[in-house]
Amino acid sequence: MKRTLNIKINRSKNEENGFCYNVRTQRKKLGMRKTSARFELHSAAKMRIEDLFVDAQCENGEGIPTNVRTDIDDVINGTHKTFRYMLVTGLLAAVTDMKLHPRCLQVTSGVDGAFDARSFCQEVIVPFEKTFLKGRLGGSNEPYANKPARFEMIEKSNKVRKGGDAILLGKLYDVLEYVRQLAMKERETVFKYAIHLVLQRSPNEANVISLAPIDGNKIDASDFFDFFEARTKGESAVASLTAFFRTFYGKDTKVLVHPSTESGASSKEVGDIDLNFADGRRYAVEVKDKPFTKVDVDHACGKAALAGVSRVIFAVGHTAENTIVAEGALADKWAQKGIELSFLKISALLGVGMALSDGTMRSSLAGEILSALIKMNACDDTMRIFRKTFKMEQA
User: pLDDT (tens digit, 9 = 90+) per residue, 74-89?
Assistant: First the structure.
């Protein structure tokens, strides 16, 4: 006897908003012969976000305490996109099933109402964002690959960066704990208010910046150094180095840069940047924009050796240039294991490149940096810094 989902679809509303899920097609896509509990949950969540989305556009948060509204606003408009996804995921879980624990990240947490937040977000939030939100949450393909989402529960004691990240984690915790105490109607109001705030954000910077050639006559060498040295959690360093590799090696060499939350997640991804040559050689580039140790170097080389990579370039950003490691001894050690290890100061490469550049080359380099940032799914702040530094107007 076939088991079917008891989910009613308002055809007129679905067709009006262009968001309708065919359960049978979705089941086939997931390769499931039978409807699993997780599939039922995801299907129900898709219906819930669809049903609440229209009203969310006009939700003003009336009835929500001021401090809770402030916390929601701070997380949605904060600098950490992972917390943004975690908030929306937890709130959607709360309005999908009263039994689900909105602070839960992994089934193994053992709490009542435990569920897999990562797959929930991946199957429900990510496709919805692509269709309706135009990347306003951050445009990530794997939001829960980042460190703040790798715990079993959202707790204030989770290890995150001190300062702003720790503050946002606390606000995220407080909002989801507040929602746990509410009846369904009040939960819906909180969820719709959060989505309303998401809709007030600009579309993902990567989606709105033009890829038209950047006028090299409007920028000079110092702009590249300003961007490289900007506080972007290493994203500007990776993008700048990617641009130089692409310019130097040309189209015959594939210079691959990976999303910051996904680097190394695939067996085909070894470093922050991978160089694949036409003759089969593969180089891995590890970019360090903060102090590092011998252990970091050994880890990068060990990963490269397992992947069959012949050379590792340890690229050092400006905040890590004073790090002291035994470069010669490390290079000799890994040479005996078949890995050619070299160290490169990115600022030195920038200096050479800028000394030899003209307006045309600077335009090309800036365009390659932008292309890398988009591929990396760089954060909003990094994209804004790029646009300001290179004097670009939003498309």
Answer: 999 988 889 999 999 9
